[in-house]
Amino acid sequence: MNKRIYFGLYGLIVILLVLPFVVPNNFYLDLAVRMAINAIIVIGLNLLIGFAGQISLGHAGFLGIGAYASAVLPMHFGWHPVTAMLTGALASALLAALVAKPIFKLKGHYLAMATLGLGIIINIALRNEAQWTGGPDGMPVLPMALFGFEIGSDRQWYWVVAALLVLTVWGSLNLIDSPFGRALRALHGSEVASQVVGVNVARYKVSIFVLSAFSASIMGSISAHYIGFISPNFADFFHSIELVTMVVIGGMASVYGSIVGAVLLTALPQALATFEGWETVAFGAILMLCMIFMPRGLVPTLAARFSKGDDK
């Protein structure tokens, strides 16, 4: 990684270390936890959309699988929360592997509709299996316990998700600079050209989809344990669109853009709390304006402008 990338990672670590000591109350600490959770999810989704160029409009379905695995397995079968979380993540990865090859033969609108259909199927299954999932009403989630220690307070969860965010950013930056990451960027640019130079396009598409689904499922489990209650809204269409919006607003093919997009759009509903029902309108308006004035997203656009300024 170059010096600028390291500087960004070190800056993130400093912010995460200082943040819990400067926020005025637990409300803002809770908001910071949710921002970090969304940032990790969006980084994985950006690897799929921004770097590999493969759209997914049903990604919240994998969050739902992870969340319900962490709720159902400990509640009904007595599984340890960590075992349940890993089982949900493996189930999500397996499902992604099974559907990825036929889905990613499609392109454009057809690919978007196929991923949307996958998310809808998962959401319907979670709603209909009321005996296990509580149906539309949802169900409680048992606390997360590690080595006999129960993670309960907002501050404890903050340090957990902050550590996961740093590891995710570090791992993603290294992945992007690896031969695997260069192959992803190549197939985003041109699948035909990638095949000509020997890139196995199908394998890389499946691999990044599986990785993104696995990451989303893990964070679905983390989010479920943190909140303590889940409903099928975890896996609905609007949540998927919200995640894609975070990718686009922050910046396609930008790890730090994913963080910025997650922070902005997690905070936005709180800022619009007095205008109940207008959050979706705001998401749509911001996305539209971003696509018009900053089609590359906030972070890549600002980075390009500052780079031009440095060259003068």
Automatic annotation (TrEMBL):
Stored InterPro entries: ABC_transp_permease, LivM-like
A Pfam family annotated for this UniProt entry: BPD_transp_2
Residue ranges crossing the lipid bilayer per the database entry: 6-23, 35-57, 77-98, 110-126, 157-176, 208-231, 243-268, 280-299
Keyword Cell membrane part of the UniProt annotation: yes
Main location: membrane
Keyword tags: Cell membrane, Membrane, Transmembrane, Transmembrane helix
Protein location: Cell membrane
Topology in membrane: Multi-pass membrane protein
Name by which UniProt lists this protein: Branched-chain amino acid ABC transporter permease
